[in-house]
Design goal:
The complex is a heterodimer of chains A (381) and B (257). Chain A is 73% helix and 0% strand. Chain A has helices at residues 2-16, 23-35, 39-65, 79-82, 90-102, 110-128, 135-143, 145-155, 172-198, 203-217, 221-235, 244-270, 273-281, 286-301, 303-316, 328-336, 346-380. Chain B has 257 residues and is an alpha/beta fold. Chain B is built from 10 helices and 10 strands. Chain B has helices at residues 2-10, 56-63, 85-94, 110-120, 126-139, 155-167, 185-200, 212-218, 236-241, 246-256, and strands spanning 16-27, 30-41, 45-49, 71-76, 79-80, 95-98, 173-177, 204-208, 221-226, 229-234. In chain B, the strands form 2 sheets. A 6-stranded mixed sheet of chain B has the order 6-7-8-3-9-10, sandwiched between helices. Chain B has a 4-stranded antiparallel sheet with strand order 2-1-4-5, covered by helices on one side. In chain B, strand 4 and strand 5 (79-80) form a beta hairpin. In chain B, helix 4 (110-120) packs parallel to helix 6 and helix 6 packs parallel to helix 7 (185-200). Chain B is globular. Chain A binds chain B through residues 272, 274-275, 277-285, 288, 292-293, 296-297, 300, 379-381, and chain B through 64-66, 85, 89-90, 92-93, 95-97, 99, 101, 103-107, 116-117, 120-121, 149, 151-152, 162, 165-166, 169. The complex binds adenosine-5'-triphosphate (ATP) and magnesium ion.
Amino acid sequence: MPMSHVADTRAGEAAAELKPPALERSRVAAQLASLVSSPTNIVLTLLALAIAYAALVPAVRFLVVDAVWTGVDREACLASTAGRPVGACWPFVFNRIGFFVYGQYPIAERWRVNVTALIAMVLIAWALAPSLPRRGIAVFLFFVPFPIVAFLLLTGSTALGLEPVPTNLWGGVLVTVTISLLGMVVSLPLGTVLALGRRSSMPIVRLVCVVLIEVIRGVPLIALLFMANRMLPLFLSPGMQPDSLLRVIVGVCLFASASMAEVIRGGLQALPKGQYEAAQSLGLGYWPMMLLIILPQALKLVIPGIVNTFISLFKDTTLVTIVGIFDFLTAVEVSANVPQWSSPVTSVTGYAFAAMFYFACCYAMSRYSLAMERRLATESR
Amino acid sequence: MTDTANRGAAAPGADEAVVMSGVHKWFGAFHVLRDINLTVKRGERIVVCGPSGSGKSTLIRCINRLEEHQRGRIVVDGIELTQDVKRIEQIRREVGMVFQQFNLFPHLTVLENCTLAPIWVRKMPRRQAEELALRLLERVRIPEQAQKYPGQLSGGQQQRVAIARSLCMNPKIMLFDEPTSALDPEMVKEVLDTMVSLAKEGMTMLCVTHEMGFARQIADRVIFMDSGQIVEENAPEAFFTNPQQERTKLFLGQILA
Ligand SMILES: Nc1ncnc2c1ncn2[C@@H]1O[C@H](COP(=O)(O)OP(=O)(O)OP(=O)(O)O)[C@@H](O)[C@H]1O
Ligand SMILES: [Mg+2]
């Protein structure tokens, strides 16, 4: 009997306690308290504060407090002119921003790049924002008509009255984004095909995919870029030498596809066999099974890996400079050596600006992927 | 419909749903199925039982080619199973399967799970497929769960969705591989009830299960397997009350104890 008595009071308490405890508040308070809860924690907290101070203060001083904001050439950024220690030379960035973004793309034709970028941004935002309607249309527009329009706009076409702009004039952000966007757009489907091929039941298909993936993955990107740049012309007749930007894009796409294939294979392997069997037992053929059942789940499992590959790809585009392609980082470096702007702080300013640019892009990708993971997780729970 | 009728009439032995003759299968060097001979008539309900590892799952998975047999012949619904992918898919369209682990598609809603195959395999218009799916979900008594995801349902509900999903293809034969073994005891009954009602409507069924009450109630024949062989087959009453083989007696002694 005492047993049931105890159970009764417990039930009574549980019923009375209807409100959930104010968790958020207490959790923050507990975290703060834990910072100073023991001598070790106090030491660690102080140490962390000291490190943060040592890193942040000089950065803020250089980038903001001591920075020079106006000027027309190197004079403005010299300590002798300013009469004080100088930090970042922002006029350099403002003055050269056009070169950073477009390279040597003719100034009169830069509107074409802007129009292309605007269309791309609208389509990408439309396709990626979960709240917008008819996202399928955006995806279709992005993958089918957009590449053609972008190609015509950027390279030009005499038939349309657009002056041709050879790719050796392209540079800066234009080149960086073109290479990475093409790399992403190609590597996802091509990587998927390679991953499926690697798990195919047909020995020839499997062999071809394994060899491709392993060879490409086993070679550094730089080596691949050199090969694409120097060796591709040897295999092709002199009459049809591919554009040097195109060669690099081919190299980057192959490299990204091979990494992507391995990421996606991880997802395919993580799916229980029962999913394949259920799809097969319903009479679904190979492609419907893959496209409707297996890939949606496998890709969702490896979103972090996919985005990681995208981010690496984006940063790896800086390597194209060694085969003479004028990407964003190269544009910044070259500008820093222009006599008009050369000063002790110019190249540091340039690199700081480049770092901010790369960080902003990569961080945006990472945040988007987190949001997408969360949305997909709630969708199927 | 006419298509089915024609095929049924044209096929030799039209009243046989499944014919297995001299079927052997190996996993590597391991001989899983040894000389299986089994004929299932249309509308017949067969329960397969036997100790773990005796090859029950492998046997029924050979019928829809989730496993490939290496010797002998298997004819399903008048079509012989060969390497021909088209034939395999044709057979799979007519044979529904329910798994121990449900194997619902977790990224699709219950309704989408059910309409997927009718839409993509039978090329049925979406509207019609949804009506069909709702009708069958009603039949397994969970129409109100149609918009939920499988992860939001109990095991028993998930298994009933799996049954409805198979039925949406309007199969001629249903295979069940221990459909209640992964369920909590209180959910076993709801799934068995669904299977009993299916049996009463004349569905051809092959069912691997150790639910002896179910076997007694609906089976036309009980098949006992051990080490890859069919050791004994009989009507349920005779099978349970008067087993002929020593191994059967031993097995029944264990599971009925
Ligand atoms: N893919 C496979 N590869 C190798 N051996 C396998 C494979 N699948 C099953 N086996 C083996 O074949 C034998 C029969 O397996 P099967 O799953 O048909 O048994 P079962 O009668 O269904 O057993 P249970 O009651 O445990 O489900 C077992 O010994 C098992 O280990
Ligand atoms: Mg089994």
